[in-house]
Design brief:
single chain; 201 residues; mainly alpha
């Protein structure tokens, strides 16, 4: 059990140099992830406008709703930048950012085709971004939280839009993939920390 914890979450009692490196890299990773977040949101907004005005593949309800969500997501990214500049809530901010990202994509899927929407792939991008933090616990948390968000989407379409339901085996594969992605990113982070610890005893 202790070996599994070390593989997924890193050393139990890391040396001070390792703690310092992890905190610094988590902060730097959060800043980089926030820049990527802004770029991706801008691309999504442009793509949404093309889909609505040029291709006519989305309806007005989704167009207005998705742009409203993107605008609020942009606002959150601005708040994140302020938090990072002032080192506000340094230990909690990575979890807050991941939770907010998962909240917005889950809400966006409520407006879209639920589990049938290709936007489900954004769950994986959010988990992948946590790898930049060099914080295995954040990565592991993101995998579990993404599964919770996906389950919320499934429950929503089950009661509000059953036409978007997908077969149970597909739901299971997506959930296992999300959880596995979180585990993989957590292991990669813990492996980097372990290598640093081995070379800097």
């Amino acid at each position: 059990m202790r070996m599994l914890q070390k593989l997924l979450l890193g050393p139990e009692n890391p040396p001070e140099t390792l703690v310092w490196l992890q905190r610094r890299q988590t902060w730097a990773g959060d800043r980089t992830a926030n820049r990527i977040r802004l770029v991706v949101l801008a691309i999504f907004a442009i793509n949404e406008c093309i889909n609505y005005f040029a291709l006519h593949v989305v309806d007005q309800r989704f167009h207005h709703g998705s742009l409203l969500i993107v605008a609020m997501w942009f606002l959150c990214a601005g708040i994140f930048a302020w938090m990072l500049r002032r080192h506000y809530l340094p230990r909690s901010s990575p979890y807050i950012m991941v939770s907010v990202d998962l909240l917005w994509i889950t809400w966006l899927l409520f407006l879209a085709d639920g589990p049938k929407s290709p936007l489900v792939g954004i769950y994986f991008l959010i988990i992948a971004l946590t790898g930049m933090r060099l914080n295995p616990r954040v990565s592991f948390y993101s995998g579990i939280a993404a599964v919770v968000g996906y389950l919320s989407v499934l429950e929503f379409v089950k009661t509000k839009a059953p036409q978007f339901m997908i077969p149970r085996f597909q739901e299971t594969i997506v959930m296992l993939s999300l959880l596995s992605m979180g585990i993989i990113m957590a292991h990669l982070g813990s492996r980097v920390l372990a290598l640093f610890e081995e070379n800097h005893p």
